[in-house]
């Protein structure tokens, strides 16, 4: 076995290499070379050199023993191996360079930053060719690629395989470019991702003679609004704050109150998320009858009694309000009342008195109602106490 011929990492021994490899960012595809019938250099060179060294090491029958001993020194053997290595390289290149078809060279995208093209071969791997950008020279080079001539290729052994050391590339107009593997060049393949917003009709430039008339579209959203959806959240926990929320929208005997139920639900969410009340502390009553309103007040008074008044109370009402023009009193209108009999309505004086009786630390009352006799949105509800004379 010939020592120090091929390193096991695939690198050719320095005595074999004929040129310094060009700096590249991509590795050669040597499997393609093997498919073309070009073996690895070591597979060719080792038996080639061993066969010749074996013959050289044998004693010639016409050679004296002293002559043989003088010839068979370590120094002479190393020199003979180096000679055989050079011969093996020459034989390998001569034998397999004819199997390389330079017409199969493929031009890759231009690297404008380094002003180079990448050229690939299924046998020889990647090569970097310098081409200037100025005066559109690189563009012209690329457009003429299919008509290029390739002359004077020079080969060497690189990483245990056949490689191209130099090549002259000639354009149809006769301009020459040189590939030189010893030139210190770099090629970077750049992949660009674009994340701009898609083009819309509004981005297109308008014509000066464009129609000056304007047609608009308006979207009206009922039931929810930004106020209902974008509710701020507060991490504070108010376990001793209770809310009574009454939302009366659908009345049996009078016109309804649009969106009252939505307002009540939205206020309940604010109590939980913004004011930090636990969900069970928010008592929500939808379309409350007179009996339901009585029960709601009894419930909050019982809670206050259980806490000995050590609570805060928030009261919210959305719905119709009714005035009594004779007594100047105001009433909340339950959904089962019509306002003609105040006995079936909930007096504000009664409301304030019962809330005050809880002895809560703080009481806040929100009334989303009109007590003038008009509906909450527009128009009159009715005025049962107005005299016939007006």
TrEMBL record:
Task: Please list the residue ranges annotated as the Peptidase C14 caspase domain.
Answer: 242-375
Superkingdom field: Bacteria
* Signal peptide boundaries: none
User: Pfam families, from UniProt?
Assistant: Peptidase_C14 (PF00656)
What is the designated name of this protein?
A: Caspase family protein
Give the originating organism: Segatella sinensis
